[in-house]
């Protein structure tokens, strides 16, 4: 039997920029739709549909939608 795997889907509306936060575990993100950027421990990462990026545990990060359509991020 395989161990459980958690995942999340996050939608960010155009122009929205939620506050920075952090998690106790690492995360891998897939940009399913839209475009925007993330600030990870002070470093900006631009992303668009089809991109992947990862976050180490306990890093401060925030995501923002800089496009004109909803951005959808899938993470594990």
SSE inventory with pairings:
Blueprint: E1 8-12, E2 27-33, E3 35-40, E4 43-48, E5 52-55, E6 61-65, E7 71-75
Antiparallel strand pairs: 1-7, 2-5, 2-7, 3-4, 3-6
Key phrases:
76 residues, mainly beta, four-stranded antiparallel beta sheet, three-stranded antiparallel beta sheet, 7 strands, 0% helix, globular
Strand order of the largest sheet: 1-7-2-5
Envelope shape = globular
Secondary-structure element order, N to C: EEEEEEE
Enumerate how many helices there are, as a single number: 0
Quaternary state, please? single chain
Q: Provide the gyration radius in Å.
A: 12 Å
Instruction: Provide the residue-averaged pLDDT.
Output: 94
The percent range for strand residues is: over 45%
Helical amount: under 10%
**What ranges have pLDDT less than 50 throughout 5 or more consecutive residues?**
none
Describe this protein's structure.
- With 76 residues, the protein is mainly beta.
- It contains no helices and seven strands.
- It has a four-stranded antiparallel sheet, with no helix packed on it. A three-stranded antiparallel sheet has the order 4-3-6, with no helix packed on it.
- A hairpin with a 2-residue loop joins β3 (35-40) and β4.
Gist?
The chain is mostly beta strands and 76 residues long. The protein is built from no helices and 7 strands.
């Amino acid at each position: 039997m395989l161990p459980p795997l958690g995942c999340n889907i996050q939608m960010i509306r155009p122009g929205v920029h939620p506050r920075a936060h952090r998690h106790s575990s690492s995360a891998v993100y897939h940009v399913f739709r839209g475009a925007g950027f993330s600030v990870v421990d002070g470093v900006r990462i631009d992303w668009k549909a089809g991109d992947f990026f990862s976050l180490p545990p306990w890093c401060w990060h925030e995501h923002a939608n800089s496009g004109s359509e909803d951005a959808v991020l899938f993470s594990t």
